[in-house]
Amino acid sequence: MREPISKKQGCKLYNDQRLIGKWHKNQYHIIKELGRGATGTVYLADTKAGLAALKVGQDAMSITSEVNVLKHFSKVQGDHLGPSLIDVDDVETTSGTYPFYVMEYIKGEEVIPFLRSRGGEWIGITIIQLLGDLDRLHLAGWAFGDLKPENLLMTGPPVRVRWFDVGGTTKLGRSIKEYTEFFDRGYWGLGSRKAEPTYDLFAVGMIMINCAYPSRLERKDKDNLKYLLTQVSQTSMLTAYSSVIKKALTGSYHDALHMRKDLTELIGHTSFSPEKHMVKKRSPVINKESATVNRKSYKKRVRRQQKRSSGIGETVLVASFLLLAYVLYLVGQIM
User: Fold this and answer.
1) Catalytic position from the list 133, 135, 146, 262
2) Where in the chain is the domain with CATH 1.10.510.10?
3) 31 backbone dihedrals φ, ψ, rounded to 5°
4) For the residues 71-88, what does the mean pLDDT come to?
5) Most CB atoms closer than 10 Å: which of 50, 129, 271, 275?
6) What would the CATH number be for the domain defined by 18-104?
7) What whole-number percentage of the chain has pLDDT above 70?
8) Which class would CATH give 109-278?
9) Is the Cβ–Cβ distance between 295 and 286 less than 8 Å?
């Protein structure tokens, strides 16, 4: 049975459906639904140029706004801030005419599984990349608004965080038009829903927390800030970043550049090491009565710790190279 058309999501398309744009006559073969939000539904489509993402909505004003954002991104930052725009048109159906646009299909890995599988040090490196893009977005006069892991992908090699849905992007100074509760400071009682850099940076802090708590925490009746910071302090994945997360949640960072600077210094500091924030295990007690048994046990544990340290060392080394490459990229952009 076919689902009814949603006024928020616009036209409902179906797998294997073929459509032709009303004005430009470009043909699209719908493969599957990728996601849906307040302003429309995104589908994976096959085109004569290859795979693309097609978003169809109900409100022409909302679709036009998103198209203008994508056009602006392409002028300011190339294809790093968001997907490149391919086509804008209308589709005629038996239930009416609906606006749609086609954009670059970004293929990658979901952020949370990616970071959880690689360790806490990767959180900082990924967030540094994201903050660089957010800084350029804010300077262009926009807030991302609905910033969450579902709107981000890890692509590469080289490893790069990309965002692909600009449905919540809002002009600075206006009210946020689309948000997800967990990443919304208003939901936690920690600020307004005004589109400004601090709104997005709060969401960045919550994305970091989400990495350690993928099932997502639930707000309390009071003292939500204290509750969130307590959760941060209780996981070795986040304790190294606790000072940065606290500033992000309390609105202490007025722009993404300062948050990125703090994270860069934190990662580059010689005392920063994921091993420092791991729970220490007691060394086995060696006594005369069980010297032989405990000595063997001790040696086995030492070998395991050496292997573990070696693996972490390799990860930190890779992370350092990625950070160096990113810094060189930024220097190149400035020059």
Assistant:
1) 146
2) 109-278
3) -100, -50
4) 75
5) 129
6) 3.30.200.20
7) 75
8) mainly alpha
9) yes
